[in-house]
Design goal:
Layout lengths: L5 E5 L3 H12 L3 E6 L2 H4 L8 E4 L5 H6 L7 E4 L5 H13 L4 E5 L3 H9 L4 E3 L3 H13 L3 E7 L3 E7 L9 H5 L3 E6 L5 E3 L13 E7 H6 L5
Parallel strand pairs: 1-2, 1-4, 2-3, 4-5, 5-6
Antiparallel strand pairs: 7-8, 8-11, 9-10, 9-11
Helix pairs in contact: 1-6
Length: about 220
């Protein structure tokens, strides 16, 4: 099932090309960009749009429409400075959700501090897993907290979960936050008596295994 989101991939090396291919194969709207034309060749006819550009240039990014893209993945690893400047440029033009690839813990820490929602370390398996998370859980924000072992999951309640108690939704996971509509977050809410409705939000916490086993998020 398509997520309905638009995705931007900046950097079509091994990691970026795998993410782009997985999303395109699933019928998603994908915009790809790289500074080298040859890296775009294999996917440019299948992507929604393809651009040769300097990703550190805010004008170039806006002209390519990146400010209107829901999720942008920065897959630049060989040039740490360019990776950081690209993230800053995306934030400058108002992109809210940026996921970035890092080549070291220090690089990753810098990207996190500058606003990357999630930092991925370069493995082909990680690229495939990242794309599948977009496709399976389009209404989720899944955040790895400890080397893909502990996870926090922010869920926007859809019609599938509306009318269920927080306990029913959480199942084997812990509820650490609940928000009614656009109101304030309630930390550690009452699970038995609180019912979730369309437009509410919930934050679950648990292990990657617990998330995988939770039928509410499938």
């Amino acid at each position: 099932m398509k997520s309905g989101k638009t995705y931007g991939i900046i950097g079509l090396g091994k990691f970026g090309s795998v993410v782009a291919t997985e999303l395109i194969n699933a019928g998603e709207s994908v915009v790809i960009a790289d500074r080298l034309e040859e890296r775009l060749t294999q996917l440019q006819d299948r992507a929604t749009c393809a651009y040769i550009l300097d990703s550190t240039n805010t004008t170039a990014l806006k002209e390519a429409g990146f400010h209107n893209i829901d999720v942008v993945i920065v897959s630049i690893g060989e040039n740490v400075e360019k990776s950081i400047l690209t993230l800053m440029a995306l934030k400058d033009i108002g992109v809210e959700t940026v996921i970035a690839k890092a080549t070291s813990q220090i690089h990753g820490q810098i990207l996190s501090k500058l606003g990357s929602l999630k930092v991925i370390y370069p493995e082909k398996e990680s690229a495939t897993r990242l794309a599948k998370e977009f496709l399976i859980h389009p209404e989720f924000e899944v955040i790895d907290l400890s080397a893909n072992v502990l996870r926090a999951v922010k869920i926007q309640i859809t019609d599938k979960l509306a009318g269920k108690s927080l306990k029913n939704i959480a199942q084997n996971m812990r509820v650490i936050g609940f928000r009614r509509g656009t109101g304030d977050w309630d930390l550690l809410p009452e699970l038995e008596t609180t019912t979730a409705y369309m437009g509410d939000s919930i934050i679950l916490f648990g292990t990657a295994k617990e998330l995988e086993e939770n039928s509410s998020v499938k």
